[in-house]
Structure formats: C-alpha cells, structure tokens
Amino acid sequence: MSKYGGWELIEPPLGAGGQGTVYKARNPARVAERARCLDHFRELLDRARFAEFAEASWLYARPDLPNELGALKVFNIPHNGREAAEAVGRLKNEVAVLKENRPGLICLLDANEEEHWMVTELMPGGTLEKHPDKFEGEAVAALEAFRYLVATVASLHKDKKVHRDIKPANVFIRESGELVLGDFGIVYLPEQRERLTCTNERVGSRTYMPTWADLGERLEEVDPNFDVYMLGKLLWCMVSGRLKLPLWYHRKPEFDLTMKFPNEEAMHLVNLILDKCVVESASDCLASAGELLEVVNETLASLKNGTPGRGKDGNLRLPCRICGKGYYQTDRLYGSLHLPLYDESSRVIGQLLLRTFTCDVCTHYEFFSPCNPEEAATRGWKRLKS
Question: Could you tell me the end-to-end alpha-carbon distance of the chain, in angstroms, rounded to an integer?
Fold first, then answer.
C-alpha cells in the first residue's frame, strides 16, 4: 500500500507543532489522475499527438478542486514508551470522535492509526485564532455563529463526552462562514476502560481552561462545565476581537465589552451570558452546553425581537438606554403611578398603571407599562424605537 493511503502531501507544511505536522494533501483519485497523465506523456510525444498532449498536460497541471484536497496530519510519535502511548492515544481519541460524523465537527476523510496519520477536510479559511476580528463588535453575528458551536458541544455532552480544548485555534472557518470544532486529542471519553494520563491533559490550555480544573494533575472525573467555561471565553474572544481574557475578568473595565462598545446595547446581554460561564467557581457555572444553548437561544430571540432579557437570578435585565452601563432597577421611592385615561370628551374611563425603574449607574428613570415588565416578556412585547 502507498504511503498515507495514497494521499500525496504538498510542501511546504501548513503548520507544525509538538503533536505533529499538517500538510495540504491531494486525494488518491487526483493523485492517480496525475500519474496517468505522466505515463501518457512520452507516448503522445513519440507519436506527435500534440493536441492530446496539451489536454493531458492541462489535466496534470490544472488547479486542484476543493473536494480533491484534504489536511493531512502526520503525528509525531516519540521513542519513549510512555510518551509514545500518549501520542497514539491522542490520535485514537480524535479519530474515534470524528468517525461519528456529528454536525459541527471537522470532517474526517481518512485515517490510519497504525501509521499515525489522519486526513480531515481542508479549511482554507483557517481558524478563529488567525481571524480574531471576524466578529469584533458584532454581537448578533457572533452569537449566531457561536450558537452552532454550542449546539455541537451540547450533543457531545449528551453522550457524556467533554472536548476540554475549546479555543480559537481549534475552531475552523468553512468557506460558507460556518464555524466547526476540531482537535479532539484530549477529549474525555467516559466509555474508555483505560484512560491515558496525558501530559497535555494535565496542562491543557491554561489561557482558556477553568481555574478549578488547573490543578497540575489528572482529573478523574471531567464535568461538562469544563467546556462551558471555555465556550464563554471563546465568545468573549469573538466579540472583543482579542485572543486572551485573563481568568474570569470579563467584568473588569479593561476587558468589559460594554466599555469597549459603549453604544451597543447587545453587549449587556453578551455579558450576562459570560456571567454564567466565565466564573471563578465551578458551582457558579452552567452545568452543560445544553443549558448554555437555552441561554443563547433566549438571548438571540431577545436581540432579534426586542423582548427583555433575563439576568443570572432569572429576573428581567433592562439595560439603561442613556448611559449604556447600568440596568434599570425597581424604584422603591416612587414605586408605581396611576394615570387617568380619558375619552374624546375628556371623561375618565379608566386608569393606566405605570411603574418607575431607575438606572443603577446614572439614575436615569423610565416608566414602564404594564405595571411589571414581566408581562411584556411573557407576551413578547418590545419597546418602540424613537
């Protein structure tokens, strides 16, 4: 059998690291077509069949079609027995997950675990790490793309699988703009009877991993909230256009999205999502991507329809439309107002009940009707734009 199952690697490499080297590669069918052209060249020249020679030359030299290419990853397998077992285990983990062909994951085209290589679909668009400004300042576009990733991770969590390495460098951009998840080398697979203690598993991506999991040792049980924390950091990166958020500091002024984009009301709602993910304690984090998906769906509906969003405590969160930093709170001093309603003859025909809410930052106040904005949320009412 030919090397790499007939796939022809194309120099130079697309990238290289400790795990292995990645090349653009031609699929076996295209390789065979080019080989047939080469075999045919001498015969055509000897017979002076120049028209056919030109056709064969074009078939050989034409640009490769997208479906004729893949990304060939050749794994580095150390000589040390333990390290070799870790590297092979990483390859087997990745192949095992990608073979499931789940929507939202990078497509596996070919693999040989014994020869230590695999081929996935080629992503000319690269990763979010290479395009940090793709969604910068665009909350709705970022959330729509992010939602697809969250749904993908939710399907993994449903089967008790945890990715554990979600970061911009592992999120690929298809030509359609769709985001897909790759690199499953340190995925947690509960069905494995013997689980390798990998160096990368212990260290992980310190910039993106939750602090409660960064213990310098193997985690015997890996909870799905591990991924939720990382997804939160990924969302912050997408919206901010930056690649590094220290710890859980998304509310600090230098990292606060509402400070960077003061005129974008949507940033308040993005922050509310981050409040449920990028947290110091595991007990404050959403339990799974399934729960996060519900929050993202509700937030997108709020942004698209204009209905109020909800805070961490389940109560409505109404961003101040004046300062853009605070939220309207129930005004205990003034409470509610009863305004008379008149008909055309100035006769009182009823009362309109209003409630006063005051911004907790700039103290701007607003009147809301009906008495409690909960009714507006329940009925799907939205504020009219002036």
Answer: 71
